[in-house]
Amino acid sequence: MRTVLFLMAALAVMGLAFWSYQENYQTRDALGEVRSLHAQIGANHERLGMLRAEWAYLNRPDRLSDLAELNFKRLGLLPLMPDAFGRVDQIIYPLPDVLPIIVPIEVDSAPVPAGEDAL
Amino acid sequence: MIRTPLRPLARILKARERGEDTHAIEAENLRLRHETMRDGARLRAEGRLLVLGAMFAIAFGTIGMRMGALASTAPQEPQAATRGNPIIGQRSDITDRNGRILATNLETHSLYAHPRDMVDPDHAASELVKIFPELKHDKLLADFTGDRKFLWIRRQISPEQMQAVHDIGSPGLLFGPREMRLYPNGAIASHILGGASYGREGVASAEVIGVAGVERKFDERLRDPAREGEPLALSIDLTVQAAAEEVLAGGMSIMNAKGAASVLMDVHTGEIISMVSLPDFDPNNRPTVLTTGDQSDSPLFNRAVQGVYELGSVFKIFAVAQAMDLGLLNQDTMIDTKGPLQWGRFKIRDFHDYGAQLSATDVIVKSSNIGTARIAMQIGAERQQDFLRSLGFMQATPVELSEAPSGAPLLPRQWSEISTMTISYGHGLSSSPLHLAAGYASLLNGGTKVEPTLVRRDTAQSGPRVVRESVSTRARDMLRAVVTRGTASFGEVQGYAVGGKTGTADKPKERGGGYYDDKTISTFASVFPADDPKYVLIVTFDEPSENSGKKPRRTAGWTAVPVAAEMIRRTAPLLGLRPQVDTSEPIGVTLTSN
Asked: For residue range A62-71, what is the model confidence (pLDDT) as tens digits?
């Protein structure tokens, strides 16, 4: 009986050792993956920061007003002034849709006189 | 195992035959048996000792080797877990109230040299001079061939320059990563942002530290790793700020002014929506501080916060409002304005003679110094001081700028009765335009104190009460009357019911001894819409002169007011304020029933 117990204990130790060995290596793999992901996130962050800075630089008010002036003919953009506000009653009501033609009526009913070209 | 018998029969029998003692045989055999047993036991013990020794040797050997390995390798922290966001070393961005970027970081490189590793210093120096024309060939060559081991060449280089340096191919020229602070909008909001530069520098990285403005005030907050780069949202609105700068710069050139400042502030939250000081600078390339002369001539000088001036008649409303709050008068009380008012050797005069008396409203509308001085005499020095203190005029503004403490107001050394009288119309007490904005906001928002802030907040400040709500309403009506029929008639902006007060103060001579005749500080302090105040706007010009007429005009009504009106016209729509236009009855429509 004792031998069996010893054997079981030894087997359990071996099993645990094997398990912990595997866990250890899996953890290391995961950490490595996290490191590479962090590096990727870092690179993306840097890229994002650069893009944001570029966006902000391209949208700086000085440049936008210069562009609005250059393209005034095409776009007709003006600084926002108080008269740009409208009232609801200045907007026309939506036009009703044209009703579908259910009974077609002959419009061009006059016959073409003989001898004349119908062009 | 076959045991050797202790009394082998053959030998016993033989011994008995010979009559010998058989015990001797037994003893002999026993001895032999014991010897064999002893030998076996010794062998086993020796084997065990050997195994034990080997085990110890292996254990100590392992420990020893591990120690050796640990001692000889570079230190590394054992890592069993990983943190959240790895990108936390960066300085946070600064954004405006809508999240548009005002300051951000860029990755660049620095260039340094190890002259000992250089193969051809002469070639490297001449190539470097081609890339960076500001470097001197002789000096570089002397550095490269001297006994220096390390040398910074440039703190920041662009990617193109980096490639060009790379192409030189010298092993002694090296690059280090650098973070650079970038202000993409250029000079816009330059005085608010301040600027940044490098603190401690290393090859691998450099510390970016704020040197002025918000960058310096919030340096800790911006660099705090626990914030994980969360941007700092200011109360500034970039679009409004840009429009205000454009209008003010235009106004400054038309009015031939030396400098100008404007502050636009939310009356309820105390948020500064835009704050402009001209001339300004580019924070990406911050000019150096003046070492000689007057600091206020430097573009770095923030006139809106640091520029303390006697602001003139804009202060009159405080005296009248306080008198109304104390119950000394109401808006229709007649005030004696017969001039000149003599006090000791001083004489107080008005710009024009306004007759024997004016109503309190007209004292403001016509801007009578004599009337205000008489009201101030009724209030008295002590109560006036308390009131101005409650509006924040006795100390530097608490705004979040590193320069704010240098904008402390200049108060009279002795607050005598004549000081009380002159301060009531804005002379003898110097304060910054921001002080004035905070004072107007506190007075007109319903009468509770607000403190100016540059950090975005969404709730109104609930400060201590300064004046009663009814007084605040009447003060607004008076300021509105100044625009509709008083000194600020150019300030009318259709739809926005602007109210305000002009102030023109002669500049005191720098060396003392009176005031200049031809140099003024012209200020317009306004509030809009006057029936339900949302914003106060202060516009100040330093030494303006409007030269379209025969004589140069320097009063605020001709200089600051039209510019402020234009600024309201441009910025109010951007702030989402709808003009309130009286709509007449629709033409051609007759009501047939109600």
From this structure: 999 999 999 9
